[in-house]
Amino acid sequence: MFERGDHAVVHRFATACRAGSGGALRSLLAAEVVAITDGGGQVPARLEPVRGPAQVARCLTDLLRPELALTVEAVNGEPGVVLRDTGQVVAVVSVRVTSAKVAAVWIVLNPDKLRHWRARE
What we know:
The chain is of the alpha+beta class. The protein has helices at 4-19, 22-28, 53-63, 115-119; strands spanning 29-38, 50-51, 69-75, 78-85, 88-98, 101-108. One of its GO terms (molecular function) is sigma factor activity.
C-alpha cells in the first residue's frame, strides 16, 4: 500500500525518467532494487530480472527514448508511469516504494497486456 510520501517518490522517479538521468534514477533506487520487464515475446525485453541500482537505471534509460511522452497515472490503483509514442501507449511502469526508495520496477511492454490502456485512448 502506498503511503503519502511514496507518491512524491514516484513523481521524482518520473522526473528522472523524463530527463533520462541515470544518476538521478540511481539515487532513487534501493540497493536491492529489482526490475522485471515483460515484452511477451513480441517486443524486445530482458528475459531475466535486472538487479541493482546501476543496472536498473541503465535498463530504464535504455527504454526511454526522447520522443516518448511520459505521464504519471494510476497503474493498478497506485501511481505509476505511462510511456506513449505519438499518443499510443508503449509501456506501463509500476513501482514498489520501500523506505522512500524504489525497491521494485515492473515494466510492461507486451502489446497484448497494453490493450486496455490503448482502448482508453
